[in-house]
Specification:
Length: about 130
């Protein structure tokens, strides 16, 4: 089972999602469960988990659910090792903005990874 750690931005976003409830909370919870239930870091794309092509400095993965007209949650994460996932970005409800979201989200996710690395200097990072 993968251990999930979260950056500051995601934690704030998720607290707001929990307060609001609804389909965004349901989808986010399900995606976090998918991530947690991974035996180890992914090595190839699946329907739910894919490598983010726009990422260049860090190996960022996205966890997504099937199409839902009400909400489109994507969680961007980074794996500092085989059994830890750092949720690097504010979950991201990208409903209505299509894949353009990934252009800015990837930059923010990589910055969040950089911040997480600065905040955890004693741990080894690839």
């Amino acid at each position: 089972m993968v251990r999930i750690q979260a950056g500051r931005d995601f934690s704030v976003w998720f607290a707001n999602v929990k307060e609001g409830g609804g389909p965004t909370l349901t989808r986010t919870g399900a995606l976090l469960s998918v991530l947690r239930d991974l035996p180890v870091k992914p090595t190839e794309d699946t329907a739910t988990i894919k490598h983010v092509r726009q990422a260049h400095r860090h190996e960022i993965w996205r966890v997504a659910h099937p199409y839902d007209p009400q909400v489109a949650v994507r969680i961007l994460c980074w794996f500092p090792d085989d059994v830890t996932a750092v949720v690097a970005l504010l979950g991201g409800d990208k409903a209505g903005i299509s894949d353009v979201w990934y252009d800015s989200a990837t930059v923010r996710a990589e910055a969040a990874v950089d911040q997480w690395i600065r905040e955890h200097p004693s741990e080894e990072h690839p």
